[in-house]
Amino acid sequence: MTGLPLHIVTQGDPAQPPVVLLHGFSMSHAVFVPLMAVLSDRYHVIAPDLRGHGLSPKPDDAYADSKDWADDIARIIAPLDRPVLLGWSMGGRVAMDYIRHHGDADLSALVLVGSYTGPVPAATKANRGPMFDETQREDGTAKFVRACTKDPLPDALARTLLDQALLCPHHVRLALADRDEDYTADARTIATPALVLHGDMDAIVPPAASADHNIQTATHIVYAGIGHTPFLEVPARFADDLTAFIRKARP
């Protein structure tokens, strides 16, 4: 199935360089709202809800084909001038779907945050596991959201992320559990500048999985004492690191 009309949130001046943000498993664009507020005075920021997530369509069967995910991103990128493509967690996997089927020639840069290009790590499967049990849907989701950061988020932000994660229905989560793509070969084809960021206290995706990314053009930044969401845990530093990288990649 292709051509789903995704819900997309944009912020900033369309005349500025475009940055596309892809969220992680069971989340939505809402995870990026604090980051978008910081970046929007520098860039045109585009944040979709991926298929099955947030306010985007959630059909029964539309999640198994890597090309469907790739084509969703291709449609977003088509009108943009060489955007930076940033994928967090599962969003990095969707970015790799795009590169597998469309290459990286239309990108100015790739950013992977708390993500990986090999098979799904065991720790990732373990932390998501309770979310696949419909009988403990809210409790399992709350535990997953809490595991995304080393220290607790402010209550209002944590509640927002939980509410957004609960918008991802059970059948979508089960379908995503079966997606265990290995993008190792695709990563080796990347020629565009890449930035890989990871917290060394990440409980969802072990830092070792990020270090073994197989992207020859990558710069790797590790955040000490930070978990799976550095853009929420150290937002100012993250925004500065991202901006410095984009200025080099898109002078």
Automatic annotation (TrEMBL):
Keywords, comma-separated and alphabetical: Hydrolase
Gene3D superfamilies hit by this protein: alpha/beta hydrolase
Keyword Phosphoprotein: no
Matching InterPro entries: AB_hydrolase_1 (IPR000073), AB_hydrolase_fold (IPR029058), AB_hydrolase_sf (IPR050266)
Taxonomic superkingdom: Bacteria
Alphabetical list of Pfam families matching this protein: Abhydrolase_6 (PF12697)
Protein name: Pimeloyl-ACP methyl ester carboxylesterase
Keyword Hydrolase: yes
Provenance organism: Loktanella atrilutea
GO MF annotation list: hydrolase activity
Lineage: Bacteria, Pseudomonadati, Pseudomonadota, Alphaproteobacteria, Rhodobacterales
Chain ranges of the AB hydrolase-1 domain: 19-240
A cellular-component GO term for this protein: membrane
